[in-house]
Amino acid sequence: MSGPSAWIDVGAASTLASGGRLDAEVDGFYVAVVELNGVRHAFEDRCTHDGESLAGADVEPDAATPCGVVVCPRHGAKFCLRTGHALTPPAYEPLKIFEVRERAGRIEVLAP
Ligand code: FES
């Protein structure tokens, strides 16, 4: 078990570099890690509209934020990848965002 504020290994950085997504459980949260324009983002894999997974969600640039968005595949809500803010209905609550870093080719997410 890891203590509070531990960095959790969630997978290989090369997976992100090739456009893949990493999924892991971090301190009871299902977390997804993606990379967009060379920047890594980790967010809770749970749309705040219906509470279901964001598996299959597009991650793309968006005029509303310089960081890009994750787009829920069900009703199209967009969330800022950096802040988690819900940018479009039908979601209004923010996504939970996690700190992410790379160590020796591995991606780590900070447990809250
Ligand atoms: S479930 Fe995500 S926008 Fe409705």
Give a description of the structure.
There is one protein chain. By secondary structure, the protein is mainly β. It has a single domain (7-107), classed as 3-layer Sandwich (Rieske Iron-sulfur Protein). It contains 1 helix and 10 strands. The protein has a 4-stranded antiparallel β-sheet. A 3-stranded antiparallel β-sheet has the order 1-10-9. A hairpin with a 2-residue loop joins β9 and β10 (106-110). It is globular, with a radius of gyration of 13 Å. The mean pLDDT is 94. The structure holds FE2/S2 (inorganic) cluster. The site of FE2/S2 (inorganic) cluster (FES) has 10 residues, from loops.
Describe this protein with a few key phrases.
112 residues; mainly beta; Rieske Iron-sulfur Protein; 4-stranded antiparallel beta sheet; 1 helix
At the fourth level of CATH, the homologous superfamily is Rieske [2Fe-2S] iron-sulphur domain
**Structural class from helices and strands?**
mainly beta
Can you give the helix content as a percent range? under 10%
String of helices and strands = EHEEEEEEEEE
- Our count of helices gives 1
Adjacency order of strands in the biggest sheet: 2-3-4-8
- By DSSP, the count of extended strands is 10
Broad shape: globular
Rg is 13 Å
Q: Remind me, CATH topology?
A: Rieske Iron-sulfur Protein
Largest sheet: 4 strands, antiparallel
CATH architecture heading: 3-layer Sandwich
